[in-house]
Input
Amino acid sequence: MRVTQDSLVHSTLNRLQTRLGEHEEASTRVSTGKSWQVPSDDPARANQSLVLRADEHARTQQQRNAQDAESRLEITDSTLQSMNERLHRARDLAVQAAKGTNDQTEREAIAAEIDEINDELESLARTKHAGKALFAGYTDGPAVESEEDDDTLLINFRGDGDHRIDRKIGPDDKVRSNITAAEVFAKDPDDLEDNTDNTFSLLHDLAADVREGNVSDVSDKIAEVDDAQDRLQSAQSSVGVAHSRVMSALDRSERDLLAVQKERSDVEDVNLAEAIMELQTQEVAFEATLGSMARVLQPSLMDFIR
Output
């Protein structure tokens, strides 16, 4: 087989082009830190990467959901605790008034403090989280509104039992991150309009009985205050259980997310030490090819004559 100068040039240039392409690929892997650049480089790994990225995205979203639920539940628990403390104080005042040994001035002072507690409870019930009423579910506006009609306190609640703010905190795990004001304060959580059988109306009537010196009625209402405290503590207990679930889910999600991210890194990322060594090898090979080409392709007058 006759090897001409022209065929030798083409052969050498092809080898040089191959070396240059391999050097470029090695350089790209080092600079990007990725073992492949486009799916066609490694279809199997690319498909695995897509699956892992989808899993990572889902777990990241679940972690955000859990963090949102954690924040909401912590504020709810803190607010309920404040409510419980104020309601406990109202009960102490009722017990003091039920003794029947207080004069009018003392009764007025006790009743005024009960009214203040009632106002404070209503203010706490209107607590907001991220600009939305904490105890009103998905509805807008304050969770509780009150109006007085012929010495009767009417309460309007927003957010019924259907206003559950559920958060997906795991692949198959949802948790309720809210509780409504009606569930905390009303005997019947479904009675939302003009409700008179609730904690606020109870304290309103209790203050009136204290002012009037109706010792018997005040004594009867102590048991009702106890029932109101039981409802509040039950709500606080359910919030605490939900908060524990969320914290447990957060711990799991952090571990699972790290595991998925490591697995994705194993699929996508290059071993940097190996990549640098390969790049150096390609540089040596490329330089050797250039040197060989320079020695073999030494044009002379006879090359042009042939």
Remarks:
- The CA atoms of residues 20 and 189 lie 76 Å apart.
- The first helix runs from residue 5 to 32.
